[in-house]
Amino acid sequence: MKRLCFLCQSETEVIFSTTWVLPGLAPREIGFSVCPECGSVCQSPSVSFDEMMTFYSSMAVYTNPGRQEKPTDAKVRDLDEQIQFIRRGIGYLPNSALQIGSSDGYTLSRFRDAGVKRVLGVEPGTASVELAKRLYQIDCIHDSAEQFETNEQFELIILTHVLEHLYQPQMTLKKCRQLQQLPTEGFIYVEVPLMAKPASLCPGFFSFEHINYYTRDNLVRSLTDAGYSVVSLVEHYNSNLSPIIGVLASTRPQSHCDEFVANVVGNRAILQDYRAKEVAYWQGCLDAILPQLQQSKRIFLWGAGIHTSQIVANTTLLADCKINGLTDTSSLKWGLRQGDWHCQAPDSIDWQPGDCVLISSYASEKEIFDALLWLRDIGVTTLRLHNVDDTRSH
Ligand SMILES: [Zn+2]
What we know:
Distance between the termini: 28 Å
CATH architecture of the largest domain: 3-Layer(aba) Sandwich
Bound molecules: zinc ion
Mean pLDDT: 92
CATH class of the largest domain: Alpha Beta
Number of helices: 11
Largest sheet: 7 strands, mixed
Radius of gyration: 22 Å
Number of strands: 17
Order of helices and strands: EEEHHEHEHEEHEEHEEHEHHEEEEHHE
Strand order of the largest sheet: 6-5-4-7-8-11-10
């Protein structure tokens, strides 16, 4: 499916595309495009909205082994900062907050603990709605960003790592503005991955789940177009796996930021440079472990998901090795077809000494590796594709 620009609705121009094998979906072309009018980068061609929802439903209760429903250290730190940043930008913490995409409820629990009296979430995932209630006593509207409705008005609306997932992000921002028709000033806090220079972007930055890409300029324009005025900005390049940008904006008109200027040439170059780097990176990782892989009796890929799609799309793995199967701890994945394999439960495989498991997740590589000690104990080799001890997580 070809998409129009998420910001200005123009037709977009494909810069690169590849065939992806995705869990539960037929193989298809996924690409990344630039808007010739405003320069915004988006995923196009993409899967349809309904197919994306099918994909999310197979990921819904996915939690990494060993985390035990607790926020990561990075998440705790990020919330410390977000609360301080918003308090500083406004001068006080508002009385009410709505978070769209409230996930397990941790973020809202922190705002409540910091003194926000009324907090409410919007969350499409059934498991997340239940977790938020059970872990933090946070109430949610069980619905999507696109479809939820409420008559309540909120002083603060929070959208952290949401806009990059939405097919029509501007509609959601305009809906937020409708929920802030207050006589007093209202605020919105938006945080998204920042499309910076290619050297600053991690492997897999242009990803399946992220269908819109933001620079400082087009994020400011997104908010301005929806009726907000930016009052505070923060950018981090090294703190998380990918660069991120956080913006606080107000319903009160003010003009601190420059007029929008489209950067079509620069953004097109980012996509092209990134693609060349990415192909070299993934193949380099594979080449480093190929001798060990080829000595293994049987090879299983760990995880029915995006990283398996990426290793297949970006390397010569299938030409170099025979892959015997696919395994994952999430019961939602068992039986799902991805490429030529059906995902099996780890304890349903008759592991033999000399077998090999290939871990290709970048974000959770170490966590998964640590949890697979039981396999190493019975003589199975566990190989890490990226082999980085990156403690920064999403
Ligand atoms: Zn555009």
